[in-house]
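tmp note - Lipoprotein SmpA/OmlA domain-containing protein
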Amino acid sequence: MTLSRRRMVALGAVSCLPGLGAFAAEKGTYFTTANIWYEVPQKIYSTNYHVGRIIPAGSEIEVSSISRNRVAFKVKGNDAEYLWTFFVKHSSLDFEKEFARLFSKTNTFSELAKKLDEKTLSAIQKGKVEDGMAREAVLASYGYPPSHRTPDLDDDVWVYWINRFKTRSVNFEDGKVAPSE
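out:
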């Protein structure tokens, strides 16, 4: 791919901004790696509050713009415009890493789905986490836990936000969701 001089200068200027190195993502087609919750399409937060409707894991999307902390996109077959906003205070990662965890050029969920049983697939489609689910199924169903509360995905407890005031912990034993007590 050949870049125009204007684009190279713009990329050079962007790479000088804090948290914005050589960010490889561009407008175009991506797939969601996990379920994304939203109440209002223009207010989807990187915290991924678990309220409202779901954009399903594996959805094909068309990214129309990427700015310093926002991604505008449409889901294939849907005319609604969505806006995902990255909140640095809810993440120990930078924008680029959060983006890459949620949006992929390949449909990673379709590959995962081939390995899952019907019960687990049904739970993911409903945005549920059930006893015995593997970590990768939890990621598809609930998304990535905000990294400021769960900095290491090898931890046995992942903390998710249901809304601004309520959290839910998912406990693991031997890589699977532990039975609820």
